[in-house]
Design a protein that fits this description.
- The chain is α/β, with parallel strands linked by helices.
- Helix content is 22%, strand content 27%.
Length: 213
Amino acid sequence: MQLITSLDLKKSEYLSKDRFISYHHQLRLIFSLGNKVKNVLEIGIYNSLLTDILKRNGYEVNTADIDPDLNPDITLDLATDFALPKDKFDAIVLFQVLEHLPYEQSEQALKKLAESTKKYLVISLPHNSIYLAMQFRLSDIPRSRYLSLKIPKFWSNKPVSNQHYWEVGLKDYPKKRILNSITNAGLTVKQEFIEPMNPYHYFLVLEKTTSNN
């Protein structure tokens, strides 16, 4: 796996228009959790943008990553039998991270993260599909309207990225399987969202079930 610190960020996909659209939804979903969520752990970092914006809005943010060169607060390998402080974080967020682990390891990591968070996990996963999306915007209507068509690539087992072990929608990884894994981890889906203009990012707000509190 190529570490983020080895990438030329000025020439990479990490500064693309789609990436900034993703930032918008990451922040929007975290803000939607309300004033009781103040202590956030971000897992999987490649720059400080999300953390900086959250801190400017009054959040206490800790960071975790496998790569110590990114200077995270916690060096964390989700593929190991890791431990995080209990009942410290109101929300744990990780975007486009779990697919970098073999699926069974990602399930185990999800269970451990569910045990570690006080209340919420906010995640995004790659959703592999063939899609057509059209955007409409009228001068008197402030928000855009969309028409979209998506067909998951259920006949393929090839992720978009060669750094991914799996992606939602591929053969053996239908959305139903991912949702079952979420339930088995002791979580329920509070919100889910796919950006019509970038359907590759599938966002989920997951809430810890009462039985795990």
